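Tokens as discussed.
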């Protein structure tokens, strides 16, 4: 496994998250909170609690860059499905204030989350992110086939943690980093198929098809039925390297 750093990935860091928040808060504070100074004291809470949403958008964009490089196609952020229900459904605001003020802030917090999401997934923002990440896509595409690299590995959840410390990166999977578990005719990965029974589903498997690496859990719809596909599993050493 080779760690791949690019200048563009290092730009997705806490400073960028804070800078985007400042711009969104300035507008939200003015338009939705009527510049009421009472809310300004909770600005830090709004920043901390909304940062996860920003990091999720960033990491999904990087994931699309990696998928596009693996599939030898242009990157297109229209392929991304953004889903924040995992965060919204489990969020609640806690503070030392009375229940009325706590509910008041929580309601506004959800409102700000929706406001931020609308900004972050807007076409204008995604176009800007696409322009910024295009050099990374170009670099990854050129690396495939060099030094035994068969494709690239990226996990959004880990990416968010790396971004939070300003060190996001991509892993290059090389020959020797994986074991071939099954080579068979593709009938999908649905119940009853060979691949369904051979897959463990712990996040350490991928498919090789026509020279492309596809991480398990990503869309497999573009693999034609009847084509020959290899199910691969990262070695223990490769898994350890990724988790470091």
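Sequence:
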């Amino acid at each position: 496994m080779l760690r791949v750093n690019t200048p563009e990935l290092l730009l997705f860091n806490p400073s960028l998250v804070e800078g985007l928040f400042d711009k969104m808060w300035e507008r939200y504070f003015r338009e939705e909170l009527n510049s009421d100074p009472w809310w300004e004291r909770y600005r830090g809470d709004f920043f901390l609690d909304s940062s996860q949403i920003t990091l999720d958008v960033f990491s999904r964009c990087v994931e699309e860059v990696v998928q596009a490089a693996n599939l030898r196609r242009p990157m297109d952020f229209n392929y991304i499905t953004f889903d924040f229900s995992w965060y919204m459904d489990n969020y609640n605001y806690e503070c030392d204030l009375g229940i009325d003020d706590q509910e008041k802030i929580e309601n506004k917090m959800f409102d700000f989350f929706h406001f931020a999401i609308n900004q972050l997934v807007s076409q204008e923002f995604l176009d800007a992110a696409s322009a910024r990440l295009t050099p990374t896509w170009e670099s990854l595409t050129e690396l495939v086939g060099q030094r035994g690299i068969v494709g690239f590995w990226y996990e959004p959840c880990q990416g968010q943690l790396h971004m939070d410390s300003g060190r996001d990166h991509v892993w290059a999977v090389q020959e020797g980093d994986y074991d071939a578990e099954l080579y068979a005719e593709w009938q999908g990965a649905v119940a009853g198929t060979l691949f369904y029974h051979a897959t463990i589903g712990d996040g350490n498997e991928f498919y090789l098809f026509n020279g492309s690496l596809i991480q398990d859990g990503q869309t497999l719809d573009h693999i034609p039925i009847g084509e020959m596909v290899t199910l691969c599993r990262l070695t223990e050493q490769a898994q350890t390297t990724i988790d470091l």
